[in-house]
Amino acid sequence: MSLQTAYIGIGSNLGNRKEYIDKAVKMLADTEKIDSVRMSDLLETTSLGKIAQPDYLNAVAEVKTSLGPEVLYKKLIEIENSLGRQRKEKWSSRTIDLDLLLFGDAVINTAELTVPHSQMHLRSFVLKGLCQLNGELVHPVMKVTAMELLSRLNGGDFAIDSHQPQLISIAGNIGVGKTTLAKKLADYLFCEILFEPYDTNPFLPDVYAGRTELSLDCQLYFLTRRVEQLGLNNLTPGQVYVSDYVFDKEQIYAKTLLNPKQLSLYEDIYKPFSKNVYTPALVIYMQDSTGKCLDRIHGRNRSYEQKIGLEFLDQLSEGYEQLFKNWKKSPVIRISTTKLDYTNPANIENLLKQISFYITVKK
């Protein structure tokens, strides 16, 4: 068999963690038909499990090998066993953990082995190691580079929780196309869509017309309605939902529309409310120029929106950028409205394929 490039995730959180990793790497390098081993830097990470346990040291190894994937996988298990790996419940501590992440372009789904690793795209500590070794590496199934996958996580590490509502929240400026995309996705996913209550907000037309004294009333209306939609008692665990907004946009609009006294009062009210809503499993962040957003706003001809100007949209755009610059609650897929043609089913289907890696859909 010709040489193939494989990538192996390595972790340890018991005993002398670095020593266990060093031993595992040496055993890999000494294995017959493994020609070379190249390592990423070590990273220290906290456990994703709910059980309290020591922090991990993690790295990724690139190996050149003429072994087949199944044989290499069995060799990894042998090394784990020889270094005292105890196989207990999921997320338990271990002296050494060796995961076959990728094996060339192979796609394997058997009872024993899944390649690419089913969770690698959710782990920053894995993707950072992969990017250090080969940032242009393309995921064989998702067809996205390791660098792009890493950017979606913003340094966070995640696990899909099928016991939580599978909420997909679409974020972006006014006029970027959130509702249009939300409808498309909900149609394909056969799921409920949660619309932002624009048309029912009695204060919004006046606020957009310049009556700033009503800005607090307007924001509190949105806040209470969004909590009703996304509240902890209002969404069904395991069920997929699509919302045409992200709850955290509340802070963007409040800081843009409210004066200091209004904002201070609003933030006091917002804090307890925000603790009682579900975090999205995935955010789709739509981006486009404010000029094109304004063109769409004029094109859809909602009377109360016609006084919206570029300066206001620029403020919102900056607010969204700041929000997602620091976002660590869930993965974020950024898409360009200009590049995504909603009338092309292939584009929607590709986005749906990406989404499927971040949520659980009941069969």
Provide an overview of this structure.
The protein has 363 residues and is an alpha/beta fold. It folds into 2 domains: 4-139, 2-Layer Sandwich (Alpha-Beta Plaits), CATH 3.30.70; 166-355, Rossmann fold. It has helices spanning 17-29, 69-82, 124-134, 146-153, 178-189, 204-208, 215-230, 249-257, 260-274, 290-300, 310-325, 345-355, and strands at residues 4-12, 34-39, 43-45, 56-65, 97-103, 108-109, 114-115, 166-171, 192-194, 240-243, 282-287, 332-336. The model has no long low-confidence stretch (mean pLDDT 93).
Provide the descriptors you would attach to this structure in a database record:
alpha/beta, Alpha-Beta Plaits, Rossmann fold, 12 helices, elongated
- In total, the number of strands is 12
- State the helix count: 12
CATH architecture grouping of the largest domain: 3-Layer(aba) Sandwich
CATH class of the largest domain equals: Alpha Beta
Structural class: alpha/beta
Global shape: elongated
What share of residues are in beta strands? 15-25%
List the helices and strands and how they pair.
Elements: E1 4-12, H1 17-29, E2 34-39, E3 43-45, E4 56-65, H2 69-82, E5 97-103, E6 108-109, E7 114-115, H3 124-134, H4 146-153, E8 166-171, H5 178-189, E9 192-194, H6 204-208, H7 215-230, E10 240-243, H8 249-257, H9 260-274, E11 282-287, H10 290-300, H11 310-325, E12 332-336, H12 345-355
Parallel strand pairs: 8-10, 8-11, 9-10, 11-12
Antiparallel strand pairs: 1-4, 1-5, 2-4, 3-4, 6-7
Helix pairs in contact: 3-4, 7-8, 7-9, 8-11, 10-11
